[in-house]
Amino acid sequence: MNPNPALGVLFHWLGGLASASFYVPYRGVKNWAWETYWLVGGFFSWIIAPWLLALTMTRDLTQVLHEAPDSALFWAYTFGVLWGFGGLTFGLTMRYLGMSLGMAVALGYTAAFGTLMPPIFRGEFASQVLGTRSGLIILGGVAICLVGIAVAGAAGVSKEREMSDQQKRASIKEFDLKKGLLVATFSGVMSACFAYGLAAGDPIKAITLRHGTAELWQGLPVLVVVLAGGFTTNFIWCVILNVRNHTGHQYFQSQLRGEIPKRHQEHILEAVTDAPAEEMAVAVVVQEKAALRAPMLPNYLFSALAGTTWYMQFFFYTMGETQMGLFKFSSWTLHMASIIIFSTLWGIALKEWNGAGSRTKLLVALSLLVLVASTVVVGYGNYAGGAH
Q1: What does the pLDDT read at residue 265?
Q2: pLDDT in tens, 167-196
Q3: How far apart (Å, rounded) are the C-alpha atoms in residues 124 and 217?
Q4: R_g over Cα of the chain
Q5: Which among 45, 61, 177, 200 could bridge 310 via Cys, Cβ 3.0 to 4.6 Å?
Q6: Which of 308, 350, 377 is closest to 148 using CA atoms?
Q7: Separation of alpha carbons 25 and 182, rounded Å
Q8: What per-residue confidence (pLDDT) applies to 289?
């Protein structure tokens, strides 16, 4: 199969759309605490969907994993666990810096580290990136992406400055720039570990290809391992919250036992790669009286749909990566840019920017333009590198 960078960019855009949209089904979940619906959706995100699609689309999945080197399995799984830690601290970034600035800082770290570290570890950065014209073009695209993220953050800060003091206090009650930047750095770097896990799974890709799997689907067995690591971290944290908040009964009983405390639902975004529009995230928060029941079947169905949609971002990611030729490390930049593009478009559709001043709206439009340009530049860099 000859690589096709234009098709790869399209796949990454589809992945970004899935990441920016997966919270829509969660809006139908009623009277469940965050930890309950997140873990139910997570079973589909990190266990059911990866195994089901890998078993369907690849050859001899269990045999491939059995033949995989222990080192590849260990590092793919471990980086998945570390990615989970990045997610668990992402909510703190929002608490200390606010949604807009916090997301911009964390996304910037994730985009930079997730894109550049894999080729550095492989020893390919100097020869393939700095040493070639196409590599330098792609590096320029990465820089443009970071500029776009910064502009998106500036738009959010501009919007927050237009709020009244009362609105600001309600939005960011615990603003702390120093603490927030430290947490955002940790969260962003740890969230980039997903890209490291995919790179660590290269030997698994080679084995599944030898078993007759089509090149387009070679990344699916790796996702099984990386997402198992992410599931481990999230499962432990959600169970801890279930115990602490006395919400474990929600998996089995529709009758609520008291209100769902608001403090249990503060950190609605779980990872840097979960970036829906702010209004979409806020809309998920539900606080009902104990007299009401939770609609069990709809809650499970909506959570399953949301979790499966979340998984599709990396389903398309692995497909896009196969189309990028020698410079598949650039896939992470395309993925992050696509997430922000579509989450911003969701924000516009959900009227998140209504009432914002002309300067803020101009920054929003500029961020979209710059981010789209970054995907075009990265795609062209791959094309110029002979990936056609």
Answers
A1: 45
A2: 555 555 566 667 878 888 888 888 889 989
A3: 24
A4: 21
A5: 45
A6: 377
A7: 33
A8: 46
Cβ within 8 Å of residue 266, ≥6 positions away: 91, 95
Rounded to an integer, what distance in angstroms lies between the CA atom of residue 103 and that of residue 336?
12
Q: Using alpha carbons, select from 32, 11, 7 the residue that is nearest to residue 306.
A: 32
Instruction: List, in sequence order, the alpha helices (H) in 58-130.
Output: 61-67, 70-97, 99-122
- The upper half-sphere exposure of residue 131, i.e. CA atoms within 13 Å in the direction of its Cβ, equals 7
What is the C-alpha separation between 366 and 183, in angstroms, rounded?
28
pLDDT of residue 270: 54
Residues of the chain below pLDDT 50 = 261-267, 279, 285, 287-291, 387-388
Tokens for 182?
């430290």
Identify the CA nearest to 350 among candidates 265, 276, 286, 287.
276
Residues in a beta bridge with 293: 255
Phi-psi region of 212 (alpha: psi -120 to 50; beta: other; left: phi over 0): left
Instruction: Report the alpha-carbon distance of residue 8 to residue 262 in Å, rounded.
Output: 42
3-state secondary structure of 255: strand
Q: Tell me the two tokens of residue 110.
A: 């994730």
User: Residue written as tokens 């430290």?
Assistant: 182
The amino acid at residue 326 is: L
Per this entry, what is the length of the chain?
388
Helices (H) and strands (E) in the chain, counts: 17, 0
Instruction: Render pLDDT for 286-329 as a digit per residue (tens, 0 to 9).
Output: 544 444 788 999 999 999 999 999 999 999 999 999 988 777 78
The position carrying tokens 């690849």 is 58
Residues 6+ apart with CB under 8 A from 210: none
pLDDT the model gives residue 82: 94
Other beta carbons less than 10 A from residue 121's beta carbon: 12
Contacts of 252 (CB under 8 A, 6+ apart): none
**Which residues touch 15 (CB under 8 Å, ≥6 apart)?**
312, 313, 314, 315, 316, 317, 320, 335, 338
Backbone angles phi, psi at 293, to 5 degrees: -105, 155
